[in-house]
Each structure stands twice: as structure tokens, then as C-alpha cells.
Specification:
Largest sheet: 8 strands, mixed, barrel
Number of helices: 4
Number of domains: 1
CATH class: Mainly Beta
Strand order of the largest sheet: 1-2-3-4-7-8-6-5
CATH topology: Sortase, Chain: A
CATH superfamily: Sortase
Radius of gyration: 28 Å
Number of strands: 8
CATH architecture: Beta Barrel
Mean pLDDT: 74
Amino acid sequence: MSRFQKSVGGKDGAQEHPVRSLGRKQKVLIWIERILLVSGLALVGFYGAARMESWLTSRAALKHFAADKALAQPGTEFDLDNLSSNLEDSSSEQLELPSVDFSLWGEQRVKAYRKNIDQHRATPMAVLRIPKISLEVPLFDGTDDLTLNHAVGRIAGTSRPGEPGNIGIAGHRDGFFRGLKDVRVGDVIEMKTLKGTDTYIVDQIQIVSPRQVEVLRPTSFPSLTLVTCYPFYFLGGAPQRYIVTASLSPGKNGESESADLGTPATANN
């Protein structure tokens, strides 16, 4: 009888072990769910804060641009006491940009954008617009890290906006220029300066080696050359360059704008 009881007890013990094991697994799964939930909420908060800061940064840069443009208008007079309010109204009516869309950006690029958010408050040289991909971004002089983390930059040695020749513009493939992958020949690119808006039409897209700097050579006609790294989703240092070239559209050189900047232009294909 005692042997039988031991045998039965042994079976009962064997049956209890899987139950205890299952309970531990359930507890682990519950903790994993909690950790994932907290992480998800943190990412949502991070994304929301990044969008808000990007909007404030764009507004600050464009406010400088609007101020310079307003002061550059011939015959314009301002009441010094109301100058700031006039500039605020001008920027909101003519130069307001939508918040930066981070949906295509790399995580590290978003962090870099936020890191020095308050350090880039200078007036942009121009505003670059590509209606096809809903891109509106300030253009600054230079291609240092601070500039390209918050805008696109004019490449040294190329023409400046408003000057004849080839304007070279660089941007990060995991930032503002990721949308270039969806640009096609015939699409419109606009360059707004204090003198007006120039409209360019994309006439060539190519992939080149970083050594093929001839894509930035001077031209005898007004043109834009947009440069970013390629492939767009390559991990590490990208081995190639993605080049979008556009030529000034005839009859649209330096048109002044009376319409809202937010109204997209359309290509006449």
C-alpha cells in the first residue's frame, strides 16, 4: 500500500510541475506586454514632440525669410512700433509651411534634427518646394551637419539662388530628401527667393559614384542639381549618389508671388 501511495504521489507531483511552469510563462508574457505598451507610448510621445519642434523651427526660419522679403520690397514703409506684428502677419499669410513629415525619416536622423533644434535660427537663402512629394524646406548655405539636420544646403562652389548657372543642393537620404525616390522627369521644383519664385522642370535622374563630381559643373543655363546618398535604405555609408537635375522653365523666371505659398503648383506635361 505504501508503495502504491508513493507511486500515486509521484504522479501527482509530475502533474503539478507543468502547471507551475505555465504560471511562470504567463507572468513573463504579462511583463513583456507591459514593457511593449510603455515603449509604444514613449515612442508616440517622442514622435509628437519631434513634430511640434520641427514646426516651430520651420516657422522661425521662415519668419526671418518673410522679414527680409518684406523689408526688401521697394516703397514699403513700416511703423516701427508695429514692425513685429506686421512680420508675423506676413509670414503666416505667405510663408507658412506644414510640419515636417517624419514618416520616411530614419530614427537617427529624427534624433539629430531634435538635438540642436534651437541653434539654426538664421534666415534661409531660399525655400525649396517640390509639390509632387509635398516637400517645402528652407535652403541654407553650406552642407555641415547642423544645416543638413534641419534643412537642405547649398553645395560650396555652385551658384547661389538667383544667380545664373547650376545650383547644387544637398540633403540627407533619410531626412528631407528621402522623397526624391518618388520624383520623376517632368515634375516641378520651385525655388522661392526674396526676388520671386523660379520654376524648374526635372529633366534627368541618375545614380552616380561619389567621385563623379561633374554633375555639379557650371552650366550656361539656370539649373538645379539635387544630391543625396543612395540607396535610400542602405545601412551604413551609402556607396552611390542619387542626382535629380532640373532646368529653369521658360517664361517663369523670377515670377513674383501674390498667392499663398501653400498652394501647390502643377506641372504642364
